[in-house]
Amino acid sequence: MNSTFTPALWADLAKRIAAAFNMSPEAAQRLELNQTARLVAAIPYVAGCDEPERTALAHLGTFVLASSESCRKAFDHKPADDRDPLARLAPIADFQGGDKALIAEGMRRLAILMTNGYRKDLEKDAKSGEYNPLLSKAWNADTILAELSASKAVSPYDDLLPINQLERSFWEF
Question: How far apart (Å, rounded) are the C-alpha atoms in residues 45 and 87?
Answer without folding.
Answer: 22
